[in-house]
Amino acid sequence: MNATESFIRFRPADEARDAARAPLVDLRDIHLAFGDNAVLQGIDLQVRRGEAVSIIGPSGSGKSTILRCITGLLRPQSGQIHVSGTRVDELRTESQLIALRKRVGFVFQQYNLFPHLTVLQNLTIAPTLAGGVSQADAEREARVLLQRVRLDHKENAYPGELSGGQQQRVAIARALAMRPELILFDEVTSALDPETVGEVLTVIRELVSDGMTCVLVTHEMRFAHEVSDSVYFTEAGRIVEHGPSAQVFEHPRSDRTREFLQRAL
Ligand code: ADP
Ligand code: MG
Question: Whose CA is nearest to atom 5 of ligand 1?
């Protein structure tokens, strides 16, 4: 395997698995308020290496806030956040936060590509400017990633020339270009035309089956059911229920989860 192939293989080798037993992401009793709006009221959440974890729940229940805590964009008032051995809630300097965000990919509903850069340049700019990668290596890796999201024929296109689904696939490839240890997806298909949702979900499904650690906030319940190892159902800043995907979706313990799923499916 050459270097270019190795960076898209995410599953840890056998000997690394034992070391990887500790959760990659570990949130303990997270409390966060905006003014007097208590948005997270004791969140416990764990993600193991290679797992796909979905967070589902009504709008305003705190799902995006949880993701923003994981990347250090928001600091909780209390509780502990570990990401790959780093105490995220204790990071203080901008350089520590930047180092964290190189390791945690984040893909949003709004893809926010650089409109004046080509697809290939969108993928190479961060690795070359912030990641210390040479232009030649960054381009070689970017082309492998574009193949992976089936956009290798679009490397010279500008974002404005692409469909929403294509732009979102570029955004996913751009996140992968930083070789993150995990990727957070926040409603990445919510703004897309229905006919392009499937192509984005296909890319995420392949990442999950390759062993990329993923946290998904999504309204695509069938997709979450299919790809997730575990599922958290949030309501009003609390985890109402969590468990293996089949359990939460097929045999929810909480009436609130059952009602939510009946409305959502
Ligand atoms: P979800 O992603 O589940 O829809 P959010 O995490 O975005 O929910 O929001 C949870 C609550 O926090 C909402 O009541 C929202 O209005 C509030 N909120 C989110 N971000 C901010 C902010 N930057 N300032 C003030 N309130 C916020
Ligand atoms: Mg949200």
Answer: 62
